Amino acid sequence: MTAVGTIAAALRGPALAGLMITCPALASGQPAPAPCDTDDGAVYVGFGLPRLAERIKAREPSTILVLGTASSLDYGASAESRAYPARLLTEVRKSRAVAPIAVVNRSIRGESAAALLQRLEQELLAAKPDLVIWQTGSIEAVRQAGADEFGDILDRGIELMHRRDIDVMLVSPQYMPKAVSVTNFQPYVGYMQQVAQSRKVLLFDRFEVMRSWADSGSVELDPAGKDAKLKLIDKVHGCVAALIARMIVTATGDKAPEGRERPIASR
Q1: Which of 143, 156, 175, 215 is deepest in the core (most CB within 10 A)?
Q2: Which domains are seen in the chain, by residue range?
Q3: Checking phi first, is residue 29 left (phi over 0); if not, alpha (psi -120 to 50) or beta?
């Protein structure tokens, strides 16, 4: 599925090694907070997105490729249009638009990181993305796959994308009380945090953000009734889209933190 829209201009703000976005305290002129934003739901932007930033500043068309599993599709949502990849463009349009951007969603339900790695090069050749949003870790946790192997797969995938001068954002698993009571997600989330830091890529730590909602009681993540659960999933997708959009705005702005070292041929 491809949707075409617009990408935000640079976010004006203080120069920091890493930027912390706490949604209710966004700078004037930025999008209004999503309903489930809380003071505890802060997202850390430690690295920039150099290729995407370059395209935006040149006002050239850009492409974001989403690779994930069921939670990057419409599973549990009221419609495909309510999933976060489709809503991402709506969120970036709320900022000052400067260049056309396409979001291509090539997620597959139940696909492991290892299986994704097998098709990754083909997807990159087809979409020619400037940024890949890689949502992963859930399948490995449920299947109790080796955490070390998972970390190695992440590293190899990011290495492949960086060799092609493609920016990367990782998205960790969802936090749901019933799921975490029977599945240990922490080793996989931990590896994602480590790899993101060592490879200088952005991490939208969805697991920790949703856990903060649960801990603070700001969002009921285990509602009773089918309608309430449907509304919850739609709401979470909306918040994920808003937070990822704000990370992109920050990481491509004039005051963005330093990003990865780009291949010499791309400079």
Answers
A1: 175
A2: 2-9+17-260 (3.40.50.1110)
A3: left
